[in-house]
Amino acid sequence: MSGAPQIWVDADACPGPIKEILFRAAERAQVMVTLVANQMLRTPSTRWVRAIQVAGGFDVADNEIVQRLAAGDLVVTQDIPLAAQAIDKGALALHPRGELYTRETIAQRLSMRNFMDELRGAGVDTGGPAAFHARDRQAFANQLDRWLQQRRRACK
Predict the structure, then answer these.
(1) pLDDT given at position 114
(2) How confident is the model at residue 38 (pLDDT cuts 50, 70, 90)?
(3) CA–CA separation, 94 vs 104, rounded Å?
(4) N or C: which end of the chain has fewer CB within 10 A?
């Protein structure tokens, strides 16, 4: 299914349960899922899942994803700037907690991210991310199913 929309995963920070959902979806929907990370990744033995290991360094994995993705693809990432770049290229971007980044929301998310970076740079403890819950997994799975349904309709 060359040319069909596929899924790109910013895999260094992607939670294990999300990877498992993606692996099952890859096989079920016969959609290519590519994990990109600066470390070795274990993936199931299937033609629908592959891993690309890139050199370590700031934004190396992100840049690899942006270079390879096409309009209509789905990028799974927690990285707001990567999500913005994906949207600019006509792809969709989905947070592992199920938030679909859109053209309408990405500017606000970038502003908030930059503000939080400034606070941390000034020594303010902004806390870490909330614990990953079953409801986050479910929200992600629901958004992924919507994308897969749209992809199926587009490929017919």
Answers:
(1) 66
(2) very high
(3) 14
(4) C
Other CB atoms closer than 10 Å to residue 86's CB: what's the count?
Answer: 28
The gap between the terminal CA atoms of the chain, to the nearest Å, is 11
* Kind plus residue range of the DSSP H or E element containing 13: none
Find the angle CA(22)-CA(75)-CA(139) to the nearest 5 degrees: 55
Q: C-alpha angle 39/37/77, rounded to 5°?
A: 145
Write out the DSSP string of 36-87. EESS-----SSTTEEEEE--SSTTHHHHHHHHH--TT-EEE-S-HHHHHHHH
- The Cα angle at residue 18 between residues 26 and 111, in degrees rounded to 5: 115
Structure tokens at 100: 């679909």
Element (H, E) at 155: helix 134-155
What was the pLDDT predicted at 126? 66
Alpha-carbon dihedral of residues 107, 110, 116, 117, nearest 10 degrees? Answer: -140
